[in-house]
Amino acid sequence: MAGQPLLEIHDLSKRFAQRAGREPPPWVIQDLSFTVGEGEFLTIIGPSGSGKTTLLNMIAQIDSASGGSVRFQSQIAPIADPKALNPGLSCQIGYVTQEDNLLPWRTTLRNVLFPLEVQGRLNDETRAHAQMLIRAVGLAGFEDHYPHELSGGMRKRASLIRTLVYDPPVILMDEPFGALDAQTRAQLQEDLLRLWDLGRKTIVFVTHDIAEAIALGDRTLVLTRAPARIAGEHKITIPRPRDIRGIMTHSEFGPLYQRIRAELQ
Amino acid sequence: MATLEGSPDSNGAIRGGRAGALMRERGDQLLVLVVLIAIWQALSMIYGVYWIGSPWGVLVRFSEGVLKGELLRHTSYTLWEAVAGFIIGAVPAAALPFLLRRRPIITAILDPFMVGGYGAPKLALAPLFVLWFGIGIESKVALVAITVFFIVYFSALAGIRSLDAKLVQMAQVMGANERDVARHIVFPGAVPYIFTGLRIAMPYSIGGAVIAELISANRGLGYLIQLGAMNFDTTGVFVALVAVTCIVIVGNWSVNVVERRLLRWRPPADLKLETGA
Q1: Chain A 5-34, residues with CB within 8 Å of chain B CB atoms
Q2: How many angstroms separate the CA atoms of B58 and A187, rounded?
Q3: Model confidence over B200-244: pLDDT tens digits?
Q4: A94, A168 in Cβ contact below 8 A?
Q5: Closest Cβ opposite residue A88 in set B11, B172, B184
Q6: Which fold, A1-15+25-92+170-177+201-265?
C-alpha cells in the first residue's frame, strides 16, 4: 500500500532546554528514524511519557528538534532553529491534537471553516465540502452551537473535520479519541476510517491503545519508554473495509496484540 | 449515526427553571429595597428631616426636579462627562496591551509606572486637574479618563496574558498568520477580561465625574450635592445621590447587555459568575 516515502524522519532527537545549574535534561527522543508512504495509515504506539506528542510536535513544526531531520516530499524541513519553524509546513501537514482546541467563541460551522478562512479559500465549493463533512460525522443541526454546548464526542468530530476540510496531504493525530468512552470512541474510529477511505490521506496516528493501533493502521510502530526508540514494526494486513467492533475476532489480531504487548514491556 | 448527547430540548427545560429562579431573585431584591427604605425612614424620623431627608421628601423633590427638567439637565451633564471620559480612557487602555503584545520589554519597562498609576488615588488629582483644565467639562473628563484607563489597561493585559498557546499553535498549523492570530484568537480571548475591567471601571467613571464636580463646578450632580450641603438641604443631597445611583444602575445594566450579546459563546455558568447577574 505504501508508495514513495512522503515523510522521512531521520535520526530525530529531542531534549528540552537545560536550566542553569542543573543536570543536562535527559533525551526524550533519541535517533528515531522511520518513513511514511503516500496514502499510508501509520499508527505509532508507545507507553505514556514516551515522547509521542513531542514527536508529532516536531513533525508539525511547532517544536524544534535537538538533532536529526524531517523531510517532506524529499524537501528538508527547517526543524533545528526554533525561529525558522514553519508550523504546519505551509498547510501541508494537518494536526489533530489531543485536546480539541476548538475556538470557544466560534460556532461549530465557523470553527470548521476557520482554516479555509485564514487560508483565503472560503468559497461556495469549500463551504459545500465543509457542510458535507459536518453531515458525514453527524453534526448536522449543531452548526450554530458553541463548543461548550457540544458533548466531548461532538467536539472531537468537529476538531477532526476542521483538519480534513482543508485537505492537507499529511494528517498527524495525537490520541484524538483518548478521553472518550468506549462507545463514542468506536463510533469515531469508524467515522475516521470511512472518511479516510474516501480520500486515502497519509495519516500518522499516535495512541497508547494497542487495539486501536491495530484496528486503524496499515502498519504500526512500537516505541520504547523515553528516550523513545523503535521497539518493533508490524504490517497489518487485515483487509479493509474493517469492522472496528468485530476486529478482535480476526485471526491476525490476537497474535499481533500479544507481540506488541510484549514489546511495550 | 450520531450520538446526540444534550439535545436542544433538554436545554429548554433548564432555561425554564432558570427563569423561575430569576423571578424569585427579583422578589427578594424588592424585599431588600423595602427594608433599606424602611431603615432610611426610621433614621430620618429619629434624627429629624433636617439631618436626614425622608424618603418621601426625596421622592417628591426628585419628581419635581425631573418634571422641571432641572435634575435631568444636571444628570445629563454628569453623564456626558462620565461617558466621554470613559471612552477616552477605555479605548487606549484596551488597545495598548494589544499593540505591545509582541514587545514584552516595553511592557515590562512600563509595568512599574502602570502599577503606580493604578495604585495612586486618582481623586486626589481632581484639584490639580481643575487648575490645569479649568472648572469646565475638561477637568472632569480628564479625571474620569485617567481613572478608567488604569483599570481597563490591567484587565486587557490579563486578557492578553491568558492567551492559550495551544490555540495559537493550532491556528498557525492551519495557516493563520500573525494578523489572523491577533484578530481571531488573541482579541476574542481578551474580550471577557476587557469587559470585566469595563464593569469595574463604570461606577468609577460616574464617581470620578461627581467628585470632580464637588471640587469645583457650576453644573452637574456633584455640584447639586455641594450646593445642598452648603444650604443644609439634606433632601437636596439625597436627591442628587439617588440620581447618581440611578445612573450607575443603568450603566451597569448597559455593560451587561452588551457583554451578554458579545459573549454568547461562553458557558452560562461562567457568565453568571462574572456578571453576578
Answers
A1: none
A2: 68
A3: 999 999 999 999 999 888 899 999 999 999 999 999 999 999 999
A4: yes
A5: B172
A6: Rossmann fold (3.40.50)
